[in-house]
Predict the structure.
Amino acid sequence: MANNLNVEYLKGKVVDLDKMLPEVRVFAPATVANMICGFDILGFALEQPGDEVIMRRKQQPGVTIKEITGDDGRLPLDPSKNTVSACVQYLLQALNIASKVGVEIELHKHMPIGSGLGSSAASTVAGLFAINVMLGDPLTKEELLPFCVEGERLACGTGHADNVAPALYGGITLIRGNEPLDVISIPSPKELVAAVVFPQVDVPTRDARQLIKDKVLLKDAVTQWGNIAGLVAALFKEDYDLISRSMKDILIEPTRAILIPQFYEMKEIALQHGALSFGISGSGPSVIAITRDEQVAKNIAEKIQAHLKENEIESFGYVSKVNLEGPKVLN
Ligand code: HSE
């Protein structure tokens, strides 16, 4: 198997193919990786946007892509290159049923690609969740996660889990370690609402990762890990002032902000209009304002979008609470 998966833990899993469902439709959510201060280790799921996968059983073994919509033709239809079909195939191989099972996939993208909202993660999670449901849920979410991480490695070159873990588990997740994967779900304070704005410029994660310095000053590292620890404590305590003090990024934001037009102007608008915090969503160019009130979040999204329009930049805006559920079956 040409991938980085070690699937020993699936040894002995048995799937009853007579009970395999003929079709399933699944939604998986967009995610905000990093949560501003926690580069590669923190993330949360949004209620919207998200991607949809329709998967159907077919007679011939093998995984094929029937259709992709909403991607402007940018995603590969070749099943070995498309992350959704490739990961589904890895799962079938790991369960030793690839020679017996065939599925065709429709992928409907309802969010922009290269936006910093975990677009590839939402698609991969939707696909893997769908095949698992069709097979009668042989894998737990913990067992599915390594396959989702493999999808990220195919899509962006590194297997960071801070989009796929919240997309799969829902809520807020902490990636304590990658090898082995050690993912912890963190409580989501009830009042948190995010305003997310995607200025329509393309920032591929691969490029945004190459920009970052690979050495940091110890004093900056101390500031950053103080903020990360402060944020995790604040989420447990539902302490919104501490959330506000902690969601600050001095390591990555100064470099990546260069790729995002009007970043500091958007930050000023958000903070002036009641945001607890403001920063880059994932690798950008989407930005997020964290609030504790839906009206405040709506107003901030509108003000930022109006500002971008004045500067001739088109944008999408979303207002969303933390999605606690993760992927869901739609039919
Ligand atoms: N943690 C990753 C990054 C998320 O910031 O590059 C990419 O969506």
Summary: Residues 33-34, 39-40, 116, 118, 160, 162-163, 205, 208-209, 282-283 surround L-homoserine (CB under 6 Å). The mean pLDDT is 95. The first strand starts at residue 23 and ends at 33.
